Amino acid sequence: MSEPQSHDPSVADLPTLQEALSRVFAPWVQQLGLQVQHAQAGQVTLALPVAPQHVHVGGVLCGQTLMAACDTAMVLAVMTRLGAFKPMTTVQLQTSFLRPVPGDSGSVQVVARVLRLGKNLVFGEVEVLTAQGELAAHATTTYALL
Which residues pair with 95 in a beta bridge? Predict the structure, then answer.
């Protein structure tokens, strides 16, 4: 007789997180084309396509797109700790842009980690990595659970 398998409700599976991208977020965020690549409790990795509509006149991916992807990735990372989407709002999103992402890069990885999940506040960090694995942007975040 096999032992009962314990199910960790804090970990959301990839299809659930991908579905949340089309259900929870605004239509313009859905148009970013984010794809969930990896998830575990408190951490999510997304692929962000570098699409022409998000490349500004300087030929690089615009910061607004990167910040939206960071914010979205962190909401999903929080979901992996809560077990489902629960209403929350961004209190703080501070982003440092360390290197430009060329408009012909193909895609970048957005890695969000929950640093602390409190009763009312969630603290996290997000890294945006180029196709070569170089750190392009780093964000720190605070969310209020509603």
Answer: 139
